[in-house]
Amino acid sequence: RAVKATVENAAARVAEKLAEVERPAIPGTPGSVTPKVAEPTRPADPAPPKPDQAGPETRTPTSVPTDASQTDVGQQGRFLTTSQGARLRDSDHSLKAGERGPTLLQDHHLREKITHFDHERIPERVVHARGAGAHGTFIGYGNARSVTRAGFLAKDAETPVFVRFSTVLGSRGSADTVRDTRGFATKFYTDEGTFDLVGNNIPVFFIQDGIKFPDVIHAGKPHPDREIPQAQSAHDTFWDFVSLHTEAQHHTIWNMSDRGIPRSYRTMEGFGVHTFRCVNAAGETSLVKFHWKPVLGVHSLTWEEAQLLAGTDPDFHRRDLADAIESGAYPQWELGVQVFPDTDDEMFGDIDLLDPTKLVPEELAPVQPIGLLTLTHNPTNYFAETEQVAFHVGNLVPGIDVTNDPLLQARLFSYVDTQLTRLGGPNFSQIPINRPHAPVNDMLRDGFHQQAVHGGVAPYKPNSLDGGCPFFAGGARAGAFVDVPARVAEAVKVRANPASYDDHYSQARQFWLSMSPVEQEHIVAAYTFELAKCFEQAVKERQLLALANIDPDLCAQVATGLGLPAPDPSEPLLDVEPSPALSQLGAVWPTDGRVIGIVVDPQGDLGGIGEVAAAISDAGMVPLVVAPHGGKLPDGTTVQRTFAATRSVEFDAVVLAGSPVPAPDALVVRDGKAGEDGVAALDPRVVLLLQECFRHAKAIGAWGDGVAALELAGVADAPGVLTGEDPTTVFAELHAALGAHRVWERFGTVLA
Ligand code: HDE
């Protein structure tokens, strides 16, 4: 009874309190107010197109050049229609029994519209879900003919291509700049059939046998209970896996290096990873590794830039690729090959060419350029092209064949299998982006989404009823793909690796020893960050042991960061030669497509802005004028970024035009003099921008009074801070500094 009384008292108190609260009346009940203006139910007429807006295409062919029949066309005619082509006069009102009545089941247009929408999404790729694609052309140099008879590598042969870049771990909507491996998949639409080179930006892989692929991916993907973290390797299960499967240590050190956070897809190398077997017209075979070398050089973000970008512009790489292509700064890569004799043991010295955790240093086998890839067109429609493109390592052309690399062998099975689900049936090669440009005459029939109307009655071979058609190409001379009759060793069935696969550390050590001090610092910082995010002590300790086996100094530095003792190596340290080609530093590259921020004070001296902006554009780069507010500057220049809507990470370099930029209403400095109360200050957003650019070792230029702003921000008088009276000279120096990508010497003085 006492409990009941307490509850009743409490209920009474709550009722009293509620009665005091004012609540709006429910519409339609006494006390409610009818709005004077009714909600509009009729859509407004469309605004007339602006002069610079092209009207919609009345006929939109796919952007893949094919012999487009009418069925290739996505949009035809001027009128909105149903999917059956019936013209519509209304698409905003469902068919109802009276204005206030229920919707009628017979409204086919409503049901078609909603049903189609309900099924708009398809399963995302189980790996490499986040990506960006582009069309382009590949031109062969002709020098690979001694190695392969592949027609697309003939001199001056031009082949259309579609390339898709991707991250591996994240979902479709994840950020571009996370620390991860990047996919680099190329579809060559050759005359002899489609060749897919499905590679990564890292030349080795985590595992030696494809049977472990589900394991490594399960470990890298978000934890199954809370589904976090997204697109990250900085968590327990990833480090648990790679410290238990130490063959992953080589790939992992690449991920922890600057290669894991590329500046742009345009500045990544690509690698076929596996060794392929090529055959020339005379039937001679060689073992070959494929490489893509970016004409712009290999460049990366700093870790802080990558983190900031994941928030400020999660689409950074996607945007960068599309913008570069749209502005005519076409990204280019040379395709190169390392060629090895096709020996019985498939070894090159002591490097096992079938072990995908090993590379062959370029100093031992130079990469020979055999063709040039240029990306020239953005997709017209992301879903139709970039999402639906389906690559397969088994899509080969005569002259290129596979080897027994156990990772490659598993991939040969996986890609079609996953695409059957992802693309909803077996006919995905008929989707425009996947259609070969060579004539297709297969005997595959029917299935979901069949597009072809096959003729004949005898889809089998041999047949007499269709006149024996289609015919076999009578061998290599007639262009047939002939499997290379590679020797298969007489052997017993085993689940085992060759002894050479036991070496898990020598090349991870070689990578570490080949890095410059700045790159080594970044690697230490990356391991420390990632392992600090792990919860399990045992995982951290086991990974530290793996680091000790790579290099005790690396291990000691990471252990210090984690506050743990550095273990002794458990394996003898191997004596390896560094490979200078692995370092990203030390050369000068073209600067096409780089973005330069021009920070201005609209009330200050605007002299020089126009000429510097023109010089930036003339150099194939992108000038962006940054000012406190949008609109136009007094001299008519358009402001492209405001202080509130930009961050340093958008720019590869910045220049400060004319005068320092004052904070609104307060401590301002003009002409280099202090403000009213004697304390000079800049807008804090400009201070942040300059300090971040400085910290990220970006070139900074200033002329005239702009020099005073650098002093106020505390970034004057350092390498790569370029000042002077003449804007053109300052820009010329800045341009030269950009060739090295960053002012590397500055990293010694600040934390990157
Ligand atoms: Fe993949 N991989 N992979 N992979 N891979 C896929 O295929 C797989 C591997 C790579 O932009 C999937 O259509 C297995 C190495 C790229 O569409 C799937 C194994 C390399 C892309 C698949 C590997 C790659 C994929 C997911 C180990 C570099 C994206 C969706 C045996 C040489 C292609 C799909 C694109 C995509 C399986 C290992 C590169 C599940 C089983 C090594 C660039 O089939």
UniProtKB/TrEMBL annotation:
Signal peptide extent: none
Class of the enzyme per the UniProt entry, highest EC level: oxidoreductase
Pfam families reported for this sequence: Catalase (PF00199), Catalase-rel (PF06628), Catalase_C (PF18011)
Domain Catalase core positions: 81-469
Keyword Iron attributed: yes
Catalyses which reaction(s): 2 H2O2 = O2 + 2 H2O
Cofactor dependence: heme
Polar residues bias locations: 59-85
Enzyme Commission identifier(s): 1.11.1.6
Biased composition (Basic and acidic residues): 87-99
UniProt keyword rRNA processing present: no
Region (Disordered) location: 17-100
Family as reported in the entry's similarity comment: Belongs to the catalase family. HPII subfamily.
Function: Decomposes hydrogen peroxide into water and oxygen; serves to protect cells from the toxic effects of hydrogen peroxide.
Name of the protein in its database record: Catalase
